[in-house]
Design brief:
Number of strands: 0
Largest sheet: none
Low-confidence stretches: 3-8, 14-29, 187-195
Distance between the termini: 78 Å
Radius of gyration: 26 Å
Number of helices: 7
Oligomer: single chain
Length: 195
């Protein structure tokens, strides 16, 4: 039932314009079920907090391998990817700009919803890389305390953290070959020849 803003007949007062627009705005924000729709700010906070929880679990629970192997990279990153996909489908069509020049990218990211999608993209990829760093360090016998600075840098600076993990891996294991099997710790002193 819509509110009735008509004045009784015979009065000469102006209609309450401020109340009309306030009620119109409030009515447009409510869904038929009475709940508020998700605003871009709410989506940002939900995704940011979910990723932050994922990072805390990844950094603070090194002995629970299920987090770095399944729960965070598959479930949490998968959920964030679904949010990203929705944002891309819903908002990229209206955005102006392109990926062919710096000016086009600046124009494209002038749209806050596109920025939100870009941020969720970063959250997913950085968290996925952090999970890979934890799994790879376990396979190669690199102690979690040595990996923690790389995880923090990956969380804060993405590619810088990945580079720092590569340096840790090179120093501790003597190899950056991502295709090779882990070198047993007893043989760590001598790197096998690549054929």
């Amino acid at each position: 039932m819509e509110p009735d803003f008509r004045l009784p007949t015979g009065t000469h007062e102006d209609p309450p314009q401020a109340n009309l627009s306030l009620h119109t705005i409030q009515a447009s924000l409510q869904s038929p079920t009475g709940t508020q729709p998700l605003t871009p700010e709410t989506v940002f906070l939900l995704c940011n907090n979910a990723a932050a929880i994922g990072w805390l679990v990844l950094i603070l629970t090194p002995r629970f391998t299920i987090f770095a192997r399944l729960l965070i990279p598959v479930l949490l990153c998968g959920l964030l990817t679904l949010v990203y996909l929705y944002l891309v489908v819903a908002d990229f069509g209206d955005a102006e700009g392109s990926f062919t020049s710096l000016a086009g990218i600046v124009q494209f990211f002038a749209n806050p919803k596109v920025v939100l999608a870009g941020w969720v993209h970063y959250l997913v990829f950085d968290l996925f890389i952090g999970c890979w760093e934890v799994r790879d360090s376990r396979r190669h016998g690199i102690h979690h305390l040595l990996v923690m600075p790389a995880l923090l840098l990956t969380f804060l600076l993405g590619p810088v953290g990945l580079l720092s993990y590569f340096l840790i891996r090179l120093i501790r294991r003597g190899s950056l070959n991502l295709a090779c099997e882990p070198i047993p710790i007893a043989q760590n002193s001598r790197i096998p020849d690549v054929q």
